[in-house]
Write a structure and sequence with these properties.
The protein is built from 17 helices and two strands. By secondary structure, the chain is mostly helical.
């Protein structure tokens, strides 16, 4: 995402903004059902809004992958130190602020169990996480932070080898297959058809080892763009075809997840648990690729408000769930139905407003500091390198 005064005038990539805005909106809708209403207020989106996190994974895979791989492709002096400093300034202030709220107001915000504080500080709480625990939606942040730590190291290591491009593609394919295998193994190892929701979330849904592969389609797009520019340029001419294909494939995955992930009198299905998440990420990857094609409608059309939601999405994601927990009871006491359009609008609007304030008061000062002290990931940047692409993280 873009935060700095220096980059203020750069053209944003509308397609990526749209996808990120969609991701945060459907996550809000899903968590409204889980935390507040316990009803499908917005139809199948209330049921499947969790997929917004999967879309975030794909987008992060591309945006971070593009930062690292573009520097490698241009043979620039990519600095791990600068990359990690910039990541920490980007992610930690908001996260630690919200984490502090959870531990200052335990009675209002705590779940049934709280992981040790050091795990929250180190983004390792998603190991052995269960539904209903404190700050459960931080599980996806753990996966992202672990990705930020490992991917640049691995990318630089691969870049130092012969046939690094071929090796990169092989590792992406192997990584996706490994994710599938691990999910299948966990399904078989923890109860098979009778697996409980708690065990399913701990060993399959929240785990680093069974969800990392959803970042790989985004990395594949970055690899394709930076190391196969001619093929990427030809593909980019088919942006609307990719858009249609992405929409159809995502719709198909929504149908499969809605009807076959949880089966009455059976439990979680093996096929969807094993293959579904990877296929969903690939489908989102097709949409992401379309968003980068200049002739695609997704690239061309700027939806009002999408850029702002994209810009605030990290802050909104962090703060919305505790606010959902706090706002339901007061509205009920004031005779406002939390399942009515008015009740939903109030809680959603206040959560977005809180995310904007968190972005403005906590996130933005650190982004300004980052832009001033550590503007790029390159140790010896060229003049044009400082003008980073929009929508970068």
């Amino acid at each position: 995402m873009l935060y700095t005064q220096a980059n203020k005038n750069n053209k944003r990539l509308h397609g990526l903004d749209t996808l990120r805005a969609i991701a945060i909106i459907i996550v809000l809708i899903f968590h409204y059902k889980v935390v507040v209403s316990h009803q499908n207020n917005v139809g199948f989106i209330s049921e499947l809004g969790w997929t917004g996190v999967d879309l975030f994974f794909v987008l992060s895979g591309y945006l971070i992958g593009n930062q690292v791989l573009a520097a490698i492709a241009r043979k620039e002096d990519f600095s791990l130190k600068l990359f990690y400093i910039r990541r920490l300034l980007r992610t930690l202030p908001n996260y630690y602020f919200v984490l502090t709220l959870y531990f200052i107001f335990p009675l209002a915000l705590d779940g049934t169990v709280t992981a040790p504080f050091w795990q929250f500080l180190t983004f390792t709480q998603n190991f052995a996480f269960h539904p209903g625990e404190t700050f459960t939606h931080s599980w996806s942040l753990c996966i992202e932070e672990q990705f930020y730590l490992i991917f640049p190291l691995l990318a630089l290591l691969i870049a130092s080898t012969r046939k690094s491009i071929l090796l990169s593609w092989l590792l992406i394919i192997v990584g996706i297959l490994t994710g599938m295998i691990l999910r299948g193994f966990m399904w078989l190892d923890h109860g098979q058809a009778g697996i409980s929701m708690s065990d399913y979330y701990e060993h399959i849904y929240y785990s680093r080892f069974t969800r990392f592969d959803e970042l790989l389609p985004g990395i594949a797009i970055a690899l394709f763009k930076n190391f196969h520019p001619d093929a990427f340029a030809k593909t980019a001419k088919k942006g609307n075809l990719l858009l249609v294909g992405g929409v159809v494939s995502v719709a198909g995955m929504f149908y499969l997840f809605s009807n076959y992930l949880e089966i009455d009198n059976y439990g979680y299905s093996f096929l969807m648990s094993t293959f579904g998440y990877s296929l969903l990420a690939v489908s989102f990857g097709v949409l992401t690729l379309s968003a980068l094609c200049t002739n695609s409608l997704l690239y061309k059309i700027s939806i009002p408000g999408a850029a702002n939601l994209a810009l605030w999405s990290y802050a909104i994601y962090l703060i919305h769930k505790p606010l959902f927990k706090l706002l339901g009871s007061p509205l009920t006491e004031w005779d406002i139905n939390i399942n009515s359009l008015l009740g939903i609008s109030i809680i959603m609007s206040l959560s977005i407003l809180a995310g904007w304030l968190l972005y403005l008061l906590i996130e933005t000062p650190f982004m300004i500091l980052r832009a001033k002290l550590y503007p790029v990931n390159i140790a010896t940047p060229k003049a044009e390198t400082a003008r980073v692409a929009t929508n970068s993280l």
